[in-house]
């Protein structure tokens, strides 16, 4: 198995965590986001969308999109599971993950920030306001879900780390890169602390990867 | 079952199609996006994220996020299936759906367009350029996938409509509202035509819903 990714990519981080929780070995193939290697022909031949990550499984099939890759890993390597067994629980965990995947993270990615600065002319203050506008409501919604749903425990769904925790942790890190702290979100903070207590999460942190700087 | 939604919401459209493909009856509860009813207390008590759609299932549990809701429907009502059986196929179908759910649609939603016009001051030409920048690459990537993957058939995955078709059709409609046509994407165009040949898709179209105008 080959994971095409980059230390800075939070979608790659999610797949790293899932692979480690399941103790699956994958060879890391670094695609350099910063020099825009993902936009080149070589990577497009692997993933025509040109986004990270992509996972090449052992028969050579290339999977793309972090959510789809992690659902695949959970189906192909079911132990330990990343989704609960009961159907409504699965929907809630997937729903929490999608709040990050669909409503928060896509507004913060480099191509959006680049367009805001290069094409629209926002300065760094304007970009920070943009990030706050779209990163924080996801935390606010998830904090309420965690406070009001009986399934909230050490992790998003009782006491086992899973899909929602992986996506939530990726957003904690990503928003953190832009100065969004967790003080207003005590439940999320506790869950994130539980996550980083696990080697699968801590060793997957973007700044712990080869090629990463000491801080951003 | 109660589906909270709005005629204009493309995420609600996706769930309408899935319900109809599976012949599941759900009572529609209209939440008026245009008067911002989704931002009010009454709807927040149902879905704390304040986004559409939400699906209240028969035991009173409220599910949120269109992808999570449709995965639930596929697990709870497996016939006809919206995902293939083989694991790599499931990952590819989910991946195509996520291209729309995570990389294209979130950049076109009202709260983003409102921020671009009200806070940043873009005019309608600037908004159209923004839409083109973020709506079209999803079509471009999916068109290449459809051209190069053996599973491309009458629909995204062979000859059965499923999860990827639902998300793709929602984006065809959504991008169409902003004047993005399908001429550069002949495979997508053929699949969309196959979709609208099905009553589940045609009767779910935003402009066919109660309260919708004749055109946008």
From TrEMBL, chains A, B:
Residue stretches making up the GST C-terminal domain: 86-214
UniProt superkingdom: Bacteria
Record's protein name: Maleylacetoacetate isomerase
BP GO terms, sorted: glutathione metabolic process; L-phenylalanine catabolic process
InterPro entries named in the record: Glutathione-S-Trfase_C-like, Glutathione-S-Trfase_C_sf, Glutathione_S-Trfase, Glutathione_S-Trfase_N, GST_Zeta, Thioredoxin-like_sf
Keyword Isomerase: yes
Lineage of the species this protein comes from: Bacteria, Pseudomonadati, Pseudomonadota, Betaproteobacteria, Burkholderiales
GO cellular component terms, A-Z: cytoplasm
Organism whose genome encodes this protein: Polynucleobacter sphagniphilus
Family under the similarity heading: Belongs to the GST superfamily. Zeta family.
Gene3D superfamilies: 1.20.1050.10, Glutaredoxin
Keyword vocabulary terms for this entry: Isomerase
A molecular-function term among this protein's GO annotations: maleylacetoacetate isomerase activity
Domain GST N-terminal: 1-81
EC number in record: 5.2.1.2
